[in-house]
Design brief:
By secondary structure, the protein is α+β, with helices and mostly antiparallel strands. It has a single domain, classed as Nuclear Transport Factor 2, Chain: A (Roll). Helices cover about 35% and strands about 30% of the residues. Strands 1, 2, 3, 4, 5, 6, 7 and 8 form an eight-stranded mixed beta sheet that branches. β6 and β7 form a beta hairpin. α1 runs antiparallel to α2, α2 packs antiparallel against α3 and α5 packs antiparallel against α6. The longest helix is centred in the first third of the chain and has 23 residues.
Length: about 220
């Protein structure tokens, strides 16, 4: 089983009294499990075409429409396996992401992968209440996850929206303002800007390097 920890976490969350964000996180990770299962039963290409949203973005290396990109790929010649180790959900309960290690094989029966990566998938709740991938990106890493990689799926939830003068802040406006401030600060010092804008659960991905997290910087894995 490729997702034992995820399934345990799903069951644990289901048994607890859930708020909307917790329920959404459970359904998102459940969707991730269904996504992987579809890849094992029907092939990687078919699974991506099933679980990518119509407007989904993937990178090759520039951003392109994900469904169009996967339609052009051959059905055989690539088998992808993955498992989420970290998931985060917005308090709005309609947008979240999963991230974790992935292995690439020419066929799923192959014992040894020919490549390793770390994926980040942003999931969006659809009008029919299903969850689909809105953005999928990966970065190559030197090998399989390190021995100290957290073996249990973790969850993080966004901050509760703050109302000002009795009115609710527009999430999209707040996001654009935060992005603009971050971009401006990064022009002067990108590292300082990243640290200032990062949450305690931040994970930084770089090509040919394992993800770094706030926990590792503090010496806790």
């Amino acid at each position: 089983m490729i997702l034992p920890c995820a399934l345990i976490a799903i069951c644990a969350l289901a048994q607890a009294q859930e708020n909307p964000a917790q329920e959404a996180a459970r359904l998102m990770v459940e969707g991730e499990g269904n996504f992987f299962q579809a890849s094992q039963e029907h092939g990687t290409r078919a699974a991506f075409l099933q679980f990518l949203a119509e407007e989904a973005i993937v990178f090759q290396p520039r951003p392109v429409n994900g469904r169009e990109a996967w339609r052009k790929r051959p059905e055989k010649g690539i088998a992808l396996s993955w498992k989420p180790l970290f998931a985060a959900m917005a308090r709005s309960a309609d947008l979240g992401y999963t991230t974790g290690p992935a292995e690439w094989r020419k066929a799923k029966e192959d014992e040894k992968p020919f490549g390793y990566s770390q994926f980040v998938s942003i999931w969006r709740k659809q009008k029919d209440r299903s969850w689909k991938v809105a953005l999928d990106v990966g970065s190559e890493v030197p090998g399989p996850p390190k021995a100290d990689e957290t073996p249990q799926l973790e969850f993080s939830f966004g901050p509760t929206p703050v109302a000002t003068n009795g009115s609710q802040i527009s999430p999209s406006k707040e996001l654009h303002e935060a992005e603009s401030k971050f971009a401006a600060a990064a022009q002067a010092d990108s590292a300082a800007a990243l640290l200032a804008a990062s949450s305690a659960a931040v994970r930084v991905h770089r090509e040919n390097a394992f993800p770094r997290s706030a926990r590792r910087r503090r010496g806790r894995c």
